[in-house]
Design a protein that fits this description.
alpha/beta; Rossmann fold; eight-stranded mixed beta sheet
Length: 384
């Protein structure tokens, strides 16, 4: 018999409407796994907390997506008590061989409480991200200690931990008790189909959650002098804006820098619009303070677009400096401005860098290769 797998992860509530990097990964990985002959059944549990119930759906003969109601408050403090109860009932019904959680936070905590045959994929160092916010208030400091304890618990219990970069593997190595494997995140075929890139207008793209960790302030500080040197340059800012107050501050900062007509705040988009924005862009820019393996960079490389990114976290493992893009020292806005000008003024350079990035993406982020390595991990965890 083939493998019966339950995946606990965020997943698009509507087909094709993807919010965030993890949904992009899971919506790419699930069909690639279903195509493997070793997989007999794959059920995704996506706990959601929206105001309206979301109907379950099937995505092919092997795949079912379920949307149980999620615990809205105190999940970390209560070890996701309500979600664990719901998950246990579903696990008892489905009797999976493997439970695969996508993140080492709440979803990993649920998975490792309901099954002893668990795989957990690292999609970010959630405890590190929480620590960055912990200086703000006593409440955040308490939350940090709860999150750090949760991460330790998940990594201790998981039968296998999948690192998506050498960066997170090094950061977590001393905490993992089970098997520790490295498998990159997959990138959907439709992004590879955008390559080779054609000539573009002098347009840059930032795509991601508008949050302090992504450092949009530094991005605007770099784009301001670049826009002076390249009069037709435009920066598109695409992605969810969960904090309206912060989003307003960023818009005001852009206006204060004289960029009101040069920065387009696009907001949340579906996958079709994201592909359109990548196609229009000369290059994709990410100037974050901390990252693990950003999905948007893999998508840009697959599409044949050069990447300008801060040399933080796992980004140097993805981007080859001066080959598939440019790596910038963290916080060095003048250096980023200079690299922006180079690609904006030199279309041929951008095309060469993008072509090299596409070849790298083919080697690292192919969905079929990622699915094969993931199934190999499932088989070991299931004792097959």
């Amino acid at each position: 018999m083939g493998l019966n797998v339950v995946m606990i992860a965020t997943y698009p509530l509507e087909p094709g409407r993807i919010v965030g990097g993890i949904e992009s990964v899971t919506s790419t990985l699930v069909p690639a796994l279903a195509a493997r002959p070793e997989i007999e059944r794959l059920t995704v549990l996506c706990f959601h907390t929206g105001p309206e119930p979301v109907p379950d759906r099937r995505e092919g003969p092997k795949v079912e997506i379920r949307f149980p109601r999620g615990q809205r408050r105190l999940a970390v403090a209560t070890r996701s008590y309500l979600d664990v109860r719901r998950a246990r009932a579903i696990i008892a019904e489905l009797a999976p061989d493997v439970v695969h959680a996508h993140e080492i936070g709440v979803r990993g905590d649920i998975a490792t409480q309901v099954s002893t045959h668990t795989v957990v994929t690292v999609h970010g160092l959630v405890h590190r991200e929480t620590e960055l916010q912990a200086r703000a208030s006593a409440k955040e400091r308490v939350r940090y200690h709860l999150v750090a304890a949760m991460v330790r618990r998940v990594l201790r219990r998981a039968r296998a931990v999948v690192s998506i970069s050498d960066y997170d593997a090094r950061a977590l190595g001393g905490l993992v008790r089970g098997e520790h494997v490295s498998i990159a995140n997959p990138t959907a075929a439709e992004f590879f189909a955008l390559s080779p890139s054609g000539p573009t207008e002098p347009r840059l793209l930032f795509a991601g959650v508008l949050s302090p960790r992504k450092n949009p302030e530094g991005l605007l500080d770099a784009f301001a002098p670049a826009a002076q040197r390249v009069p037709k340059a435009v920066l598109a800012v695409v992605g969810p804006q969960p904090d309206p107050h912060y989003a307003r501050e960023i818009r005001e900062r852009a206006a204060g820098l004289g960029l009101a007509d040069r920065v387009e705040f696009v907001g949340m988009v579906d996958n079709d619009r994201l592909r359109t924005e990548i196609t229009r862009a000369r290059a994709v820019v990410l100037f974050s303070h901390e990252e693990t393996s950003p999905t948007i960079l893999a998508q840009a490389m697959a599409a044949g677009k050069p990447v300008l990114a801060a040399r933080v976290g796992g980004i140097p493992e993805m981007v080859s400096d001066s080959e598939s893009g440019f790596l910038i020292e963290p916080g060095d806005a003048p250096e980023l401005a200079d690299r922006m000008v180079r690609v904006l003024e030199d279309q041929d350079l951008a095309l060469r860098l993008g072509a090299r990035g596409h070849r790298i993406a083919r080697e690292k982020f192919d969905p079929d290769a990622v699915a094969r390595r993931t199934v190999e991990t499932y088989l070991r965890v299931a004792g097959r």
